Description:
- The complex is a heterodimer.
- Chain A is mainly alpha-helical.
- Chain A contains ten helices and four strands.
- In chain A, strands 1-2 form a two-stranded antiparallel ribbon.
- The model of chain A has no long low-confidence stretch (mean pLDDT about 95).
- In chain B, a hairpin with a 5-residue loop joins strand 13 (about 275-285) and strand 14 (about 290-300).
- The mean pLDDT of chain B is about 95.
- The two termini of chain B are about 25 Å apart.
- In chain B, strands 1, 2, 11, 12, 13, 14 and 23 form a seven-stranded mixed β-sheet that branches.
- Chain B has helices at about 15-20, 40, 45-50, 125-140, 150-160, 235-240, 245, 300-310, 370-375, 405-415, 460-480, 545-565, 580-590; strands at about 1-5, 25-30, 80, 105, 120-125, 145, 175-180, 180, 185-190, 205, 255, 260-270, 275-285, 290-300, 330-335, 350-355, 360-365, 420-425, 435-440, 450-455, 485-490, 495, 525-530.
- Flavin-adenine dinucleotide (FAD) binds next to strand 12, helix 8 and helix 12 of chain B.
Amino acid sequence: MDIREIVAALGELTRDTFNGSAVFVAPGPDAYSVAQGVADWQPGAMEAQAPDYIMLGIDFSLRPPHPLARPIATSLGLALGEVELPLPSGAVPLDRALAVLLDSDEVIPLSLAIALLVNFLAMQVSPASARGSFLAPFARLTFAEKAGVLERLEDPAPELVARIAAQTPEPLRPAIAGQLAYVGGMLFVLPAIATYIDWLAFDRQTKTMLKHPTSWLLAGFQPDGPVEGWDDHQGYYQDRQSVSY
Amino acid sequence: MRDVIIVGAGAGGPVVAAELASRGLDVLLLEAGAHATRPGDVWSHFEDDANNPLTGYFRFGPAERSERAWFRELPQNSFVWQSAGVGGTTLHYYGNCPRPYPGAFAGYDRPDKNAYDTAHLFPFTYRELVPYLERLEAVLPVQTAAMGTKEVVFFSGAEKLGIPLQKTKDTVGFAYRPQENAILQPGGNAGLTTDSAKLRYPHATGCTMCGHCFQGCVQPIGAPRNLLAKRSTANSYVPMALTADAWSAHGRAITLIPDAYAVRVHTERSGGEPVATGVTWRLTRTGEYQREDARVIVLAGGCTENPRLWLNSGLPNPNDWVGRGCTDHDFDAVVGLFDRDTEASKGPGSSARCDFPGHGGLELVGLPPGLQGFALTFSDSGVPGHYTNGRGARGAWDGPAGRLVGAELKEAFRNGINRMLMVGINTDDDVEPGNRVTMSAFPADENGPVPRIRIRRRERSRRTRANREFLAGKAAELLRGAGATKVYRIDWAPILLHVQSSMRMGRSADDSVLDENAEARWLKRLFIADNSALPNSVGGANPTITTQALATRTAEKIFEKYFQGDPWIGSESPVVSTDPRISQALMDRDL
Ligand SMILES: Cc1cc2nc3c(=O)[nH]c(=O)nc-3n(C[C@H](O)[C@H](O)[C@H](O)COP(=O)(O)OP(=O)(O)OC[C@H]3O[C@@H](n4cnc5c(N)ncnc54)[C@H](O)[C@@H]3O)c2cc1C
């Protein structure tokens, strides 16, 4: 197995996992939303490219390698043998591909480690999710099943923490449960921010809008574009412009 | 050798800098983040540009935006809104300046005196702080806020709570009122038009009601820096400090070094005692280290970075209270959906509030949509209908507390950001030793070992929890009274936005780091002058004006004790930060 191909395929698996998590928060008309049984006619997290926002949010917070990424991947890798990872040369069991990766010097992105964890939990919630459409078991779950996974991430079971701790260097072991809860929270706020923020429509270099942000249409915000002020002065409450000392 | 070195140009540091500069001292102010001298060129109204916690210009990180934000370990679902740069987190802030509740101070003797964090009171009386509060109210200046539509809606609910209107600066009982804000109120065309051409200074003065406080205030366009509407310290005390010679008879302009991350406080023994002597900082643009010494060192890096700098410098910590006792107002949010316009994204972030001394306060919070998305999904109570994390309280709101996700989130936004109204809950929370900043086991960054902020969410004191529930109920009642068709309680996870008391001053040497003058108990000539110096959560009122008043008092204490000067607050009339001499000096010096 070629390590480049594995890295690329795992990148796709990661993205597919976060496709599934992004639409949980902000569903739209896309296939992932339809598959979870909660879709929406208006654009949602997929149209907002929220999976990219999530991955950036997870990976950019700390200069790689994230010290928990490899321990998480190592501790869960073997349990993912039922999942298939498509490579150009044909599908391989995920655990085998991971073994090759973990044997190499490649930096493991935290987003990959979290995606593996989310899929590990998905298979606990629904063993049948090991196979099916999409790449990631998590993306195959219903809305209610996804909630079950996120619950397990926000409040991780002691066995799960112990399993990861067994692969983690001593000083960082106490950090595991807290980091999982932290990432659990981020899997809600990052897609929500991505869906309603102006990030896709704004050019940072020129500080101008490239187009009217879809997010603004969704929220009914600044319908005529950016303004320097609003005509919303409603006077002073009971005409009071000062208080006494 | 300088007279004074101050670390951190946020809410507290620049106040000490300007006050001591007005006395003619030689002051060096170090700031880890950028100095936006032409904010209109580098900031924008755009949320992701400003607020992206990893890449935004207000992230807690170096000036160079391609570089990572400075990492802190958060060992729980939680979030820190702190900004680096000249102005610190006041770049984000909403300028709300309620005075602290008198019950948070020593000597308070009204019937509700036991309703407060009585184990951690201010070591002096409320009356003693009032002249310093008055000073701030004059200098910033603080003004009674005008209403937008969202305030009209808020008041229509507040009026039904059966509490009176507060007409005084001091808070003495349950009441509602317009905010007292550090925002220059709308003048000229401001607040009356959306036509950008008519909103330029001097045709418009003060707040143009643009709704972008969080992204930094550059309104009205064309105004001198010290006349921009929101009185972040970047628009008030920093310009004053940089031009002190222009407005004070004995003033001396300070030296400001931005992009300078203090990494070590130096000490030596003098007269048998440890004494602070100097600071080493790292220039974030070049990686070069520099050191200077001073007669007095003042830390004002905020509640997380002060303990970090302290511990990384190996400073004494005999009672183990460095970093402990962090209060965060145990924030929560209750959100109403309306079938009429609230215009919640317009105007200053918050211009109306309710105070419930002994419990905390409520305030209206307007947000742009990305942040509103954050606010609706940031919860400790799971997903209503699916799981609750053992929380999901029920009350005067609809259904169990928890985040909005899926169809519900989409529906809420479809209803419109300008048909929502969010009420923020500022809990009067107790100082608890387990809520603390320590050093993380995560890898050090270029500035040394990194901090870890632990907030024990589910183990807050009984009083803190009861206060939060009380306020959430009041918020829901207010929103219903205002006509909300749906009321959600989010049950926010810890959000570190009002953070106090991690290096607290206190009456007892057993549970405090600072004495009643804000000088370190075990290290002479070292003072702290930001939110971390507060002894408690000031009763749940927004903390900044209290910090700034305390910083003014601390400046006076420093001047008296180490520079043999006389106190001046109360005896000299204050110069307002909008003074034309400051505007002129800024222009002359191209600042
Ligand atoms: C969205 C928002 C709205 C808010 N609204 C209000 C409000 O309406 N009213 C209110 O009272 N409060 C408000 N606050 C809170 C307010 O911003 C803080 O109370 C206040 O800024 C805290 O001041 P500080 O000096 O303790 O810390 P900061 O303002 O955070 O300043 C610390 C500064 O020190 C610098 N620094 C840190 N470490 C170092 C180092 N080692 N070397 C050099 N520099 C260093 C930092 O970069 C920063 O600039 C709000 C906060 C937010 C996020």
